[in-house]
Write a structure and sequence with these properties.
The chain has about 250 residues and is mostly helical. It is built from 12 helices and no strands. The protein has one domain. The protein is about 80% helix and about 0% strand. The mean pLDDT is about 85.
């Protein structure tokens, strides 16, 4: 990409952080990493995005403070720490092409999960969270979050069967992802996924996070969530395929 194309695509990716936090759901956030990986080398893209995701978490915590099921943390976080350590370790062993493929696969799997999750959970009864399920889910969330900030499907698989009220479900998701993102920070710094260079670029993009929140609030009034999410899922799927197959145009 030319320089202006790189920064345009990356800016669009960062806007989706705010749009996701504004109420369109985690599906929007999943578009962020694949888009940014089209603009920058994947390891650099992951490092640039983490401080911005942490900033977006602050907005989310403000709106959903106290509206969560805190016990989910004790079931998920032990596994998350293990998963982050494993995930960050392997980031340094993958080439840029291999990381792009990994991010693309996670994106495509996410779309498949979103399409079929109602069928997946329709026949299940209410799930009582526990460490037996929570620790493996936490490990998977830590690994996928390290590679692509893409732990959404794993966390959903743990939370959705609990049949929480909608606001409590969203608030619990906010709480869990805030912890996951902040747990990653020291490991990303120690393994040079976050560097002085990525932090500087994060600061360039930082104003786009609240702008995305502002835009998301207004887009919510103009478009139905269902119609908008169909567009987003299509975009995630196509971006994932591009990262996997590296089509030439």
């Amino acid at each position: 990409m030319d320089t202006w194309q790189t920064w345009t695509v990356a800016s669009l990716a960062v806007l989706f952080i705010g749009l996701s936090k504004a109420g369109f759901g985690g599906g929007l956030g999943m578009l962020t990493t694949p888009l940014c990986a089209l603009a920058f080398p994947p390891k650099e893209a992951i490092g640039i995005l983490l401080p911005l995701l942490c900033a977006g978490d602050i907005f989310s915590l403000y709106y959903y403070w106290g509206k969560w099921e805190r016990p989910n943390l004790k079931f998920l976080l032990p596994g998350v720490v293990v998963g982050v350590v494993v995930g960050v370790h392997f980031i340094g062993r993958f080439s840029s092409r291999e990381l792009n493929i990994a991010i693309g696969v996670i994106a495509v799997v996410f779309v498949a999960f979103q399409v079929f999750r109602e069928r997946i959970f329709r026949a299940t009864g209410r799930f009582q969270p526990n460490h037996t399920v929570g620790v493996p889910c936490g490990i998977a969330a830590g690994v996928t979050s390290s590679f692509a900030h893409g732990a959404g499907p794993v966390v959903s698989m743990f939370l959705v069967p609990q049949q929480l009220p909608k606001e409590i479900y969203v608030g619990t998701t906010v709480l869990v992802f805030t912890w996951i993102n902040w747990i990653k920070v020291p490991f990303f710094v120690a393994n040079e996924v976050i560097t002085a260079g990525t932090v500087l670029k994060s600061l360039y993009f930082l104003p786009l996070v609240p702008l995305g929140v502002w835009a998301g609030v207004r887009l919510n009034r103009l478009f139905s969530e269902q119609g908008f999410m169909r567009f987003v899922l299509a975009a995630i799927f196509l971006t994932g395929l591009q990262l996997i197959f590296n089509f030439r145009f």
